Each structure stands twice: as C-alpha cells, then as structure tokens.
C-alpha cells in the first residue's frame, strides 16, 4: 500500500481493480476543508486517461510492473509476434493492443514488454528510433522562410513533418513519444 501523498510521476498504482500510471498530480490545501490530491492517471490496460481525486493520506495499492527485454519478430495479419530475449518464449499481441507502437516497430527491433502479475499490458519503445524515408516531395530551393517543413512517409507508414532538405532513403531519428522528427541519423 502507498499513500497518495507519496505520488510521483510514473508511479504505477492499482485503483478499483485497474492498473494505472500517474501522469500528473497536485496536492491541494483549500482554505476551508480537508486537503486532497488531484491526479491524472493512465489506464495501462486500455490506454484511457482519467482524473481522480483522493483525500490526503488515503492509501491505495502499489502495482509492481515488470519490464523484460523482448524482440519484435514479425506480423501475421492482426497478430504481432515477440520473443523473450532470456527464455526465447514467443508470444503475440494484437494490433489493437499496439495502436501507437505500430508506427515505430520494425522487425528484429528490441523493446521492453510491460506486464503485471503475468498479464501483458503492452510494450515500451525506446525514446527514439531510426526509420527510413520511403516517400517525400523534393524540397524546392528558394521555398524557405524560416523552419519550412514538408510531409515524409517512413518505412512503418507513419507520416512525419520534416525539414525541406530531407530526401527519400534518408534515415531519420524519430521521437516515439510524440511521433516527431528529431534529426537525420
């Protein structure tokens, strides 16, 4: 059990039978009445974000999340197969479980699997990945004001806004948290 007074960003907790990670929290001490903690929590099972308010000092369950290194092997229809790097066990996740992550997953890529008491909740990607540009318009010289960008499609199908000097077959560093261009690799 953990007190809501000890909330930290990234902490995983169990509330009403669901597993949440703390995205934001704020301790509030009104002039009249009892103190409370206002929090924004992300459900690790379905990805929904909820706002919950707890009384100061209230205790809730702490969820111990396990992270293991796995390798993404291949996709077969809606199933995506991974292999545990230590035990070589293979398991599959559906496209619905990996909506955002599919924008960055390439075969043979190493990621971390997130599980709670044997239940697989999803995967954690590295903060950035290298992806090859497969389609983009050529940059036209003299078309630049400041910070001009164009659309580029990378090998996973993700569309990214990139500077005009990026060409097809360039390898880019892409931020997996926001899906934005960082630099050339």
From TrEMBL:
UniProt family annotation: Belongs to the elongation factor P family.
Record domain Elongation factor P C-terminal: where: 129-184
Name assigned to this protein: Elongation factor P
Entry-linked CDD domains: S1_EF-P_repeat_1, S1_EF-P_repeat_2
This protein's pathway: Protein biosynthesis; polypeptide chain elongation
Stored PANTHER family: ELONGATION FACTOR P, ELONGATION FACTOR P (EF-P) FAMILY PROTEIN
GO molecular function, one term: translation elongation factor activity
Location relative to the cell: Cytoplasm
Residue ranges constituting the Translation elongation factor P/YeiP central domain according to the UniProt record: 67-121
GN (gene name): efp
InterPro entries: Elong-fact-P_C, NA-bd_OB-fold, Rib_uL2_dom2, Transl_elong_fac_P/YeiP, Transl_elong_KOW-like, Transl_elong_P/YeiP_cen, Transl_elong_P/YeiP_CS, Transl_elongation_fac_P
Keywords: Cytoplasm, Elongation factor, Protein biosynthesis
Function statement: Involved in peptide bond synthesis. Stimulates efficient translation and peptide-bond synthesis on native or reconstituted 70S ribosomes in vitro. Probably functions indirectly by altering the affinity of the ribosome for aminoacyl-tRNA, thus increasing their reactivity as acceptors for peptidyl transferase.
SMART domains, A to Z: EFP, Elong-fact-P_C
Organism in which the protein naturally occurs: Paenibacillus puldeungensis
């Amino acid at each position: 059990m953990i007190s809501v007074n000890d909330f930290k960003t990234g902490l995983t907790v169990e509330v009403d039978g669901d597993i949440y990670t703390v995205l934001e929290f704020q301790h509030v001490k009104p002039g009249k009445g009892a103190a409370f903690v206002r929090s924004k929590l992300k459900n690790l099972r379905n990805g929904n974000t909820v706002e919950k308010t707890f009384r100061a000092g209230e205790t809730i369950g702490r969820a111990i999340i396990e992270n293991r290194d796995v390798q993404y092997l291949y996709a077969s229809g809606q199933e995506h197969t991974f292999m545990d790097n230590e035990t070589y066990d293979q398991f599959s996740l559906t496209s619905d479980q990996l909506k955002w992550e599919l924008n960055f997953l390439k075969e043979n890529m190493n990621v971390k699997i997130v599980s709670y008491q044997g239940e697989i909740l999803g995967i954690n990607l590295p903060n950035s990945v290298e992806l090859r540009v497969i389609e983009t318009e050529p940059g036209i010289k003299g078309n630049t004001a400041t910070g001009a960008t164009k659309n580029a499609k990378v090998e996973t199908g993700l569309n990214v806004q990139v500077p005009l000097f990026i060409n097809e077959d360039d390898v880019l560093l892409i931020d997996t948290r926001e899906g934005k261009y960082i630099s050339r690799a």
